[in-house]
Amino acid sequence: MWKFLVRRILLGILIVILGAFVTYSVIRLLPASYLEKMARQLSAGSQGRVSYKDMLDVLERQYGMDSDVFTGFLKWFFNAIQGKFGDSWMYMKPVTKVFSEVIWWSVLMNVITLIVEILISIPLGILAARKQYHFTDYAVTIFALAAISLPSFYIGTVFKYVFAVKLQWLPLYGLTGRYFETLSTWGKIGDIAQHLIMPVLTLALLSIGGLMRFTRTNMLEVLNSDYIRTARAKGLNEKVVINKHAFRNTLIPLVTIFSGLLPSFFGGAMITETVFQIPGIGYKSFQAMLQGDIPFAMFYTTFLMVLTQVSLILADIMYAVVDPRVRVN
C-alpha cells in the first residue's frame, strides 16, 4: 500500500508541474494582458511624454514578463515551491492574502450545497430503484435529466427573476444586505443565510441529477444480486435489506463521485458566484482571469490541480475502506 501511495504522489506531482506549465503558457500567449492595459493607461496619463512601448517594456521588466515562456515559468516555479506566489496585479496585495479573505465563503456555500445534495439525491435515487418502471421512477428520472441539462447561469437567472424580482422574497445578489453592520449576531447569520439560498439551490440542482441517477443505477445492480435475493428469502425486513445490505455496496461506486468534492469545496463555483456576485474564490478568480492577472491565475489553477490529485489519492484509500476486496488485492 505504501509503495502504491508513493507512486501515486510522485505521479501527482508530475501532473501538477506539467499542468502548471500548460496554464502559464496559455496565459502568456493570450493576445492581451493586464500589463498592456496598464501601459496604455499610464502612457495616456503621461500626455505623450512616455510612449506605450516604453511603458510596456518598463512594466514587463518590473513584473518579470520580459523573458520567454519557459524561463518565466521556471522563475515562477522556483518561487512557488518556496511559498512565494507574488502579488496580485489586479487586487494589489499578495495572492495568498486575497485567497484567505474569500475562500471560506466558497467553502461554506459548497458544504451547505453538499448536505442539501446528499439529503435529496441519494434517497430519491434509492426510491427510484425500489420503484423501477413505476410513476415514481419516471418522475425522478425526468427531474434528474432536467437538472443535468440546465446550465447554472440559466437556473440562477430564473431563480433571480422569480424569487428576487417578481416575488421579492430573496435578495437579488451579494452576500450581505445594506444594513448588515447594524444587525445583531443572529441577524447577521440570518441575512447571510437569506443571501445564500438561491446560490445553494442553483449549485445543488446542478449536482442532484447526476448523483441521483448514479445512485439509482448502482442500487438497481445491487438489488439484482444473488445475496440480496438470499436475504429476502430468509425473511429479512425490506428496510434491513435496503439500508444494511444493499446501500453499503452502493457506496463503493459513489466514492468516485465524492472524490471530486475536495476541489469543488475550495475551488468555488465560478459561474454561480459570478451570477449572484458572491465574493468567493470563484468570483474573485473569474475577475482576475478576465484582467490577465497571471500571479493570481497561476496560484488558483495550481491550487486546484493539487486538490484534484489529493482527492484522487483519498478516493483510492476510500475504496480500500468500503471494499475489503481492494485491500486484499
Structure explained in plain terms:
The protein is mostly helical and 329 residues long. The protein has two domains: 32-78, no CATH class; 97-293, MetI-like (MetI-like fold), CATH 1.10.3720.10. The protein has 15 helices and no strands. The protein has helices at 2-28, 34-45, 52-62, 69-80, 95-130, 135-149, 152-166, 185-223, 226-233, 238-258, 261-267, 270-276, 281-290, 294-322, 324-328. Helix 6 (135-149) crosses helix 8.
What percent strand? under 5%
What is the CATH homologous superfamily assignment of the largest domain?
A: MetI-like
Shape: globular
- The radius of gyration over CA amounts to 25 Å
Distance between the termini: 10 Å
User: Please, how many helices?
Assistant: 15
Order of helices and strands: HHHHHHHHHHHHHHH
Tell me the number of structural domains. Answer: 2
Q: Tell how many strands the DSSP assignment holds.
A: 0
The biggest beta sheet, please? none
- Mean pLDDT across residues: 81
Provide the low-confidence segments as ranges: none
Q: Quickly give the CATH architecture of the largest domain.
A: Orthogonal Bundle
